[in-house]
Design a protein that fits this description.
GO molecular function, one term: zinc ion binding
Helix content: 10-25%
Family: Belongs to the zinc-containing alcohol dehydrogenase family.
Distance between the termini: 14 Å
Radius of gyration: 20 Å
Protein name: Alcohol dehydrogenase 1-like
CATH architecture of one domain: 3-Layer(aba) Sandwich
Strand content: 15-25%
GO cellular component, one term: cytosol
Pfam families: ADH_N, ADH_zinc_N
Bound molecules: nicotinamide-adenine-dinucleotide, zinc ion
Number of helices: 11
CATH topology of one domain: Rossmann fold
Amino acid sequence: MATAGKVIKCKAAVAWEPNKPLVIEDIEVAPPQANEVRIKIVATGVCHTDLYHLFEGMHKDGFPAVLGHEGAGIVESVGPGVSEFQPGDRVIPLFISQCRECRFCKSPKTNQCEKGWAADHYDVMALADSRFTCKGKKVLQFMGTSTFSEYTVMNQIAVAKIDPAAPLDKVCLLGCGVCTGFGAAVNTAKVEPGSTCAVFGMGAVGLAAVMGCKFAGAKRIIAVDTNPEKAEKARVFGATEFVNPKDYNRPISKVLAEMTNGGVDYSLECVGNVDVMRNALESCMKGWGVSVVVGWTDKHDFSARPIQLIAGRTWKGTLFGGFKSKDGVPQMVKAYMERKVKLDEFITHNMTLAQVNEAIELMKRGGCIRTVLSVSRH
Ligand code: NAD
Ligand code: ZN
């Protein structure tokens, strides 16, 4: 490869500061160091967690950064010590690593690998170190991935090699939203056949949770969203009913309890709002109901009456749907290729990296499920 070992100059969307549009800049991407791979990003989805960092979390130490964490691409070159990857491999960057060596990777109970940015940087959402510079300044790597860039450098513990036949502009969604929602239902909630589920928030994450509930054999899947336009999509993924909390002047948990003779077996919060998290818990059946927090926030505390748990409900959370990332993503790619899970139906818009601000505004307005940006040609 002509570029191997050299600094690559390329385009990236840089978030210079919170609450401002991203700026398409020429950046420099240094060659991969030991155990690292440099990836040419072909396509990326825009996920609400990108918006969270930009408009809600706004952690001052988390800028400037290249956002984006739902991408797919092709290995351009590899650093010393990398044997698992070679140039030309099709890959998905992982915002949660799987080193296979730490105590978390060795435990079947969790996917929270001890290595990588997520170990102790939930608030800043990046590590201090990165391979990006722009105009002489260090630019941070958001969630350890930064897919709003033509090239990015990742440690090999956070890269999944996938079927070379998989369409990168579709399977990029498995880098975050779809695995997160699907896994939240299948791995974290462990939805059982014949059960009744409620999913709050019909973005890509929530729709994927609906798909997961259906996959697991749920009998009733109640989709909850304040945007009535989401009802139709919810049905495409398997929702049997749709409820808009704005249509009622009593708490949605009461409405759901009435609809289900006491409460749902499983509820999944895919909004990122602490009030909705409480409502989701309170929508569960006493005795055995399980509620999973999927929506992302590090800004607010949540609360609930202890009696909710004393009465036998369980409150859980999930990161990346509980999937061990390097193992889980190629399996989900395979499931898509075998038509066992849907991906195309999540994509409502296709744009280019240069249109990233348009894509962000669209998501803010609730005007899309997923926009996929084409980042570079291949
Ligand atoms: P999105 O913005 O596309 O979807 C959110 C949906 O929630 C929208 O349809 C909106 O209308 C709906 N909503 C808003 N307020 C509501 C309310 N009060 N009641 C019911 N519905 C309401 O977002 P997304 O990309 O699908 O992401 C969803 C959440 O999941 C975000 O918080 C994101 O940060 C989080 N997330 C978490 C993980 C994880 O690993 N836990 C990974 C990815 C995303
Ligand atoms: Zn995401």
